[in-house]
Design a protein that fits this description.
- The complex is a heterodimer of chains A (328) and B (550).
- Chain A is 40% helix and 27% strand.
- Chain A has 328 residues and is of the alpha/beta class.
- In chain A, the strands form three sheets. In chain A, strands 6-7-8-3-9-10 form a six-stranded mixed sheet, with helices on both faces. Chain A has a four-stranded antiparallel sheet with strand order 2-1-4-5.
- Chain A is elongated, with a radius of gyration of 24 Å.
- Chain A starts with a helix and ends with a helix.
- In chain B, strands 1-2 form a two-stranded antiparallel ribbon.
- The chains are: A alpha/beta (328), B mainly alpha (550).
- At the A-B interface, strand 1, helix 3 and helix 4 of A face helix 1, helix 4 and helix 16 of B.
Chain lengths: 328, 550
């Protein structure tokens, strides 16, 4: 068994489906995450992230599909799988009638940590989340961000192999966010697999080693951040800032066969458009603009980031859905 | 990974949830004021009775006073542990659920039983401590009053068993009612009803209800210390042996048996809910066992008492009626109606607990479709509950018929002529409305079915009362009343009672007509409801299979 735990993927999902009555929350997703990854699950509200997390956390039975953690089927070996798991829900609750250390002691003991080891584990966890000076405070007196940090401390107390963090940074100040990032990276270095869901995409791309993008219950892309970006690499944006408004520049830019969806921002005097050409084509376009006397201040290519990909996917799915509904 | 060892259920002293509540509920700022209040009340009781016994002279010694002091002390202990404790359990678990802490706890690798025990003894820990404050005084009074250890231990074994049972009820109430205040008050209301109202029903054939309290154990264990006639006046018939089918049990043992079996049922329910919060309170198969147990309790007491004639004699004592006023036959007909209604309501409740809602039914079909099957596993919560409901109805019908037959064979019914097909009439009255309810419940969900219950089963009898009170619209009142499912047992038995006496009155004809009108109406509605239910199931299957083909 221990051999299986060591060699199996940290998280394995096969054909997972979750329904709420007629509504499909998760529709047949499959995913495999190796140990030591920080995997970001991103997507808009209603994409199915929380449902996926709840199934992984053994808090919900899927309609069907197989989910295993470190090779253990969570449906069959639930209790065992739970000992490998740390889960921090969105807006993680803390009890109102316990002190900070009592809350941690409850969960350390519930996970079976021996009383001798508990004390030092609690101190370590509080150090990690910078709450050592709040040890004797009542949980209810902590700020929102501190409660999030306390919940994180609770989640890592028993050194789980897989951590599921649903919006862990919500309510945290920038310093705490940076600390969260380094804590998660340290855990990953030690072999813990971390699944994070977040709406703050810049934050995810800074800490995650791989991402999965969910939309309308589907996993539309997954892999390392570079892999996901390369799947959408054909799409980049050209941004041309002018010294003054110059209609001819807009005309040249718009009629170029490899430029699409041109927009002009009057405030920044900036022309933007999706560009499908290569670097040579870019040079040619710049030369044409300059030769026609357009006052080009800056000329830059913007590679697509995860955020813009998600926004595009979202609008694409919306369009498909609307179209299907119209035809249906 | 850290070195972890499992938390075993039997290591209750090391249970993390129990320790958690020892910390949070035994903080000085709460415990000290409460302890002082309890101490003052306890001291007041003991010193008052001691002082009174000193002034009363030889006829009333401190030995008597100490025994009398035990009564308010036990009542105080009951109030602390059973009333306040149950409220604390229900409110506490509701708060855990509202705060989201339940989900955290669900994710820990403790077994469901360890978690249940942690909450069961942890949430009312303050009440246990407060009761502990009264304990030295109770021990002293028992010693001074010459109460031997054995009856005291027997009584307290039932006392703690009852407390655990009520606390488990509080846990179930708190898991279902998601409001802290409401959960606490609901469970306390249940305890109050159990002591103040339900024992009265023992006189109407529901003898087992009284054994859910500590009263029979108190009556039995206190009997050697008080006058028997006086005991019978306070607790009529409670200190005598309890027959159950072919066996006789002492009240203490019977109380322990009945309460322990209910504790097992509640623990199974809670363990199911811990494993899967979306699971039904009762599984399909388990519901059969629970309902069978309920019938066994109802009939196990009543049948031997009826056969030996003690059923009517006991009722006479419990009702405090003079022998001339008590009419055994009327009492028999009444208990028959009440038994029918009790079975009806129990079935109604169980059906409600086991029916799959639309989401569950669709999920069941989807899971089956995924495995390439059209049928859902028969024991699954997601499968239709119709098959189990039919078995439950058959059991209920059989139980009611058995009870009725034993009443017909009893002494007060000698010479009373009852139609041989009376069992069939009762069966129709019980099964047809409930079957109709089952189809609507599964097809349209509980909101619609409860709305229908309100307009078809509650409003018509209320209207019937108004019409009846007017004194002119008797026929309409009788027919309207019969539309109500829970009242159909009354009509089924009522017409038999009237016919037995050969009254041939106009009212008898109307009651008979109303009964057959309602039976016909339900019988005609059933095929329509059955068709709708089948179409609903077929649609669900089609939806599930469409999902697969996509």
């Amino acid at each position: 068994m221990s051999e299986t735990l060591a060699t199996a993927p940290a998280v394995q999902i096969r054909d997972l489906r979750v329904d709420y009555g007629d509504q499909v929350a998760v529709d047949g997703i499959s995913l495999e995450i190796p140990p030591g990854e920080i995997f970001g699950l991103v997507g808009p509200n209603g994409a199915g992230k929380t449902s996926t997390f709840k199934v992984l956390a053994t808090l919900m039975d899927p309609t069907y599909g197989e989910v295993s953690l470190c090779g253990l089927d969570v449906a069959e070996k639930t209790e065992r799988a739970r000992s490998l798991l740390g889960y921090m829900p969105d807006l993680a609750p803390v009890p109102t009638d316990l002190k900070v250390w009592e809350f941690l002691d409850l969960f350390a003991a519930s996970h079976g940590l021996a009383s001798r080891a508990r004390e030092s584990k609690i101190d370590d966890a509080l150090d990690h989340v910078q709450l050592s000076d709040r040890r004797e405070d009542q949980c209810k007196n902590l700020s929102r961000g501190m409660k999030q940090r306390l919940a994180l401390a609770k989640t890592m107390l028993h050194e789980p192999r897989v951590m599921l963090l649903d919006e862990p940074a919500s309510g945290m100040d920038p310093v705490s966010r940076a600390a969260l990032r380094s804590t998660l990276q340290e855990l990953a270095r030690r072999g813990t697999t971390v699944l994070v869901s977040s709406h703050i995409l810049s934050e995810l791309s800074a800490m995650c080693t791989s991402v999965g993008i969910m939309s309308k219950g589907h996993l539309v892309a997954s892999g390392t951040i570079d892999d996901v970006l390369s799947q959408f690499s054909g799409q980049k944006t050209l941004s041309i800032q002018l010294l003054a408004h110059w209609p001819q520049a807009e005309e040249i830019f718009s009629r170029h066969p490899q430029v699409h969806e041109v927009t002009y921002d009057a405030d920044s005097r900036c022309l933007r458009g999706r560009f499908e050409g290569d670097e040579k084509a870019q040079v040619a376009l710049l030369a044409e603009l300059v030769s026609e006397g357009c006052p080009v201040q800056t000329f830059s290519e913007k590679t697509r980031d995860i955020e813009s990909i998600i926004l595009d996917l979202e609008s694409l799915t919306d369009t498909k859905t609307t179209s299907a509904e119209n035809h249906g | 990974m850290a070195d972890l060892r499992p938390v075993y259920a039997w290591e209750i002293w090391a249970n993390p949830i129990l320790k958690r509540y020892c910390r949070s509920r035994l903080r000085k700022k709460h415990l000290i004021p409460w302890s002082l209040i309890v101490l003052i009340i306890t001291l007041f009781i003991v010193f008052l009775l001691f002082t009174v016994s000193q002034r009363m002279g030889e006829n009333y010694t401190w030995e008597h006073g100490a025994r009398v002091a035990l009564i308010p002390l036990v009542i105080l202990q009951m109030f602390l542990l059973m009333f306040l404790g149950t409220g604390a359990v229900a409110a506490g678990i509701a708060r855990e659920s509202i705060d989201g802490m339940i989900d955290y706890q669900r994710l820990t690798p403790m077994t469901p039983l360890a978690k249940i025990l942690g909450y069961l003894f942890g949430l009312p820990i303050r009440e246990y401590v407060l009761m502990g404050i009264t304990a030295p005084f109770a021990i002293y009074c028992a010693h001074a009053g010459g109460v031997p250890l054995e009856p005291a231990l027997k009584f307290y074994s039932v006392f703690f068993c009852s407390a655990i049972l009520y606390h488990l009820t509080g846990l179930v109430a708190g898991s279902v009612v998601k409001r802290k205040f409401l959960a606490g008050r609901t469970s306390q209301f249940f305890v109050a009803i159990l002591y103040l109202v339900l024992p009265r029903f023992a006189a109407l054939g529901f003898i087992f209800l009284v054994y859910l309290t500590v009263l029979p154990a108190w009556a039995e264990q206190a009997l050697p210390f008080v006058n028997e006639a006086r005991m019978n006046r306070i607790f009529p018939g409670l200190a005598t042996e309890v027959p159950w089918f072919g066996w006789d049990f002492s009240p203490t043992v019977f109380s322990l048996l009945i309460q322990a079996s209910l504790i097992v049922v509640f623990v199974v329910i809670l363990a199911r809910k811990w494993r899967d919060p979306e699971a039904h309170v009762l599984g399909h198969v388990f519901s059969l066992f629970v309902f069978f147990g309920y019938l066994a309790l109802l009939l196990g007491n009543a049948l031997p008492l009826i056969a030996e004639g003690d059923f009517f004699a006991g009722a006479k004592v419990m009702m405090g009626r003079a022998p001339r006023e008590f009419q055994g036959e009327s009492y028999g007909w009444t208990t028959m109606v009440l038994m029918g209604m009790a079975i009806f309501f129990a079935l109604f409740l169980v059906m409600h607990l086991i029916v799959p809602n639309r989401h569950e039914a669709l999920r069941g079909f989807r899971r089956s479709a995924k495995r390439g099957k059209r049928r859902v596993a028969w024991f699954s919560d997601d499968n239709t509950s119709l098959g189990f409901v039919l078995v439950l109805l058959a059991l209920g019908w059989f139980g009611w018929a058995l009870f009725s037959q034993s009443i017909f064979n009893s002494a007060p019914f000698r010479g009373v002529r009852v139609a041989p097909w009376q069992w069939l009439l009762q069966g129709l009255a019980l099964c047809l409305p409930l079957l109709a309810f089952q189809f609507v419940l599964e097809w349209r969900g509980w909101r619609t079915s409860l709305l229908l219950v309100l307009f078809l089963w509650v409003v018509p009898p209320l209207a019937a009362i108004i019409f009846g009170a007017s004194g002119r619209l008797e026929t309409i009142a009788i027919y309207l009343g019969c539309l109500s499912g829970p009242l159909m047992p009354l009509y089924a038995v009522g017409q038999a009672a009237m016919e037995a006496h050969g009254s041939g009155s106009n009212t008898q004809a109307k009651v008979e007509g109303a009964y057959w009108f309602a039976v016909t109406l339900y019988a005609l509605t059933l095929p329509y409801l059955f068709t709708q239910w089948r179409q609903y199931r077929a649609k669900l299957l089609a939806t599930a299979q469409e999902g697969r083909s996509e």
